[in-house]
Design brief:
- The complex is a heterodimer of chains A (197) and B (307).
- Chain A has one domain: Rossmann fold (3-Layer(aba) Sandwich).
- Chain A is built from 4 helices and 8 strands; from the N terminus they run E-H-E-H-E-E-H-E-E-E-H-E.
- With 197 residues, chain A is α/β, with parallel strands linked by helices.
- Chain A starts with 21 loop residues before the first strand and ends in a 7-residue tail after the last strand.
- With 307 residues, chain B is of the alpha/beta class.
- Chain B folds into 2 domains: 144 residues, 3-Layer(aba) Sandwich (Rossmann fold); 151 residues, Aspartate/ornithine carbamoyltransferase (Rossmann fold).
- Helices cover 38% and strands 15% of the residues of chain B.
- In chain B, the strands form 2 sheets. Chain B has a 5-stranded parallel β-sheet with strand order 7-6-5-8-9, with helices on one face. Chain B has a 4-stranded parallel β-sheet with strand order 2-1-3-4, with helices on both faces.
- The longest helix of chain B is centred in the C-terminal third of the chain and has 20 residues.
- Classes of the chains: A alpha/beta (197), B alpha/beta (307).
Chain lengths: 197, 307
Amino acid sequence: MSTPVSDPSPSARGRSDAPGVLDADDIARALTRIAHEVVERNKGTAGLVVLGIPSRGVPLAKRLAARIAAVEGTEVPVGALDVTMYRDDLRLRPARALEHTDIPPGGVDGKVVVLVDDVLFSGRTIRAALTALDDVGRPAAIRLAVLVDRGHRELPIRPDHVGKNIPTSLRESVKVHLDEIDGHDAVLIDAAGDGVR
Amino acid sequence: MKRHLLTAADLDRDDATLVLDTAAEMARLTEGRSVKKLPTLRGRTVVNLFFEDSTRTRTSFELAAKRLSADVVNFSAKGSSVSKGESLKDTALTLEAMGADGVVVRHWASGAPHRLAYSGWIRSSVVNAGDGTHEHPTQALLDAYTLRRHLGSLDGRRVTVVGDVLHSRVARSNVLLLSTMGAEVTLVGPPTLLPVGVEGWPCQTSYELDPALAKADAVMMLRVQRERMSAAFFPSAREYSRRYGLDARRFALLPEDAVVLHPGPMNRGMEITADVADSDRSVIVEQVTNGVYVRMAVLYLLLGGAS
């Protein structure tokens, strides 16, 4: 046996060998790609409104809007849409505190709304978001952008833009950490988790 | 949060903050929307059980429950079996048999909501909408919400509550809640209208109004409740008005950004003059709007989750 093969990525990307885990650079690249996809699909930024679903969808939405603005040179309205009051599992847990809802001044009527969330799982949060949007107005179209699609859909809902598809087992849980909330950017898979959010 | 809201003392600082924050979100979720309705309490039944006359509180609770898509049943003592002599217990058992999830109760007897909540007659959550001269916690919550909107935090803010404290459930609930939220409350009224034992409340008291105005961030005028007064508590309405009414001269003593509250209904010319009540620093009409949001928050937090 001769010299060992050199380690391609030392400690800096310590967890990058774990399946489907993203670091800060991966998240940044995924968001940049999604920004381009959104603009391409929409043929520009006309009528775009980006709405994040709390909690971690909101900073992601802001980053996405900033990237779209950087690409196209025009500001895109960005806001937040809390779906707590529209969830189908309200009765299963004690009443939860509500998160901020912040619809940009122009509203959503006739606009192309891009919903942004961190992880797409059962699809129930997105169903709640679609119902919530119903009460806000009537967009021309609603698109869905997620950082991670982990599969296991329970409803006929699919994303339009995905940062990364991460096949998971139901026993695992996917955790997205964002600088604005957690102090750093990372997507982690917790094998010990029970998969229930 | 506890399962019932019977007194402002049921709320610690975190609970009260949760209610106020939730109310703020309710406002965001309904203001300016074409659909002012949320599906959250669909299929739940809220009974408004009113043994005492009330327009704004009952309407406010009814609107709050309807905005959350609950089914609302109004049950008032007049024109119901209560006027035929039915007891509180039998009324409660009837409501239980009909499957009420939440009961909003106003009663002329202090403690009636507590009896309803803990007697075992009903399983639903009970919200006190005013009981006798005891408490009116949702009024205190809407006052705190209104104050927070205008003053920012309530911490260290000075609130002066003026008038008939003895008969006022609004004053009692406000003293408890505002002190929980960190505000300094001063009660002002004639000695005959300050209750026995007020020394033990978490507030200051004074018989003189003028000195209490200069440093106040807000002043809350209480209604003179003639219907509860069996004895003469003050010589004449004019004398009361002269010593404790908020008129233009006293209004000028207030700091420039202080706001004026009144739980309604007002006796214009008695505890507050019309020009003060209609001034741009009077938030009396806004209190009514905020009442709906606060009651939506309370109903959501009590009935919205797992029971």
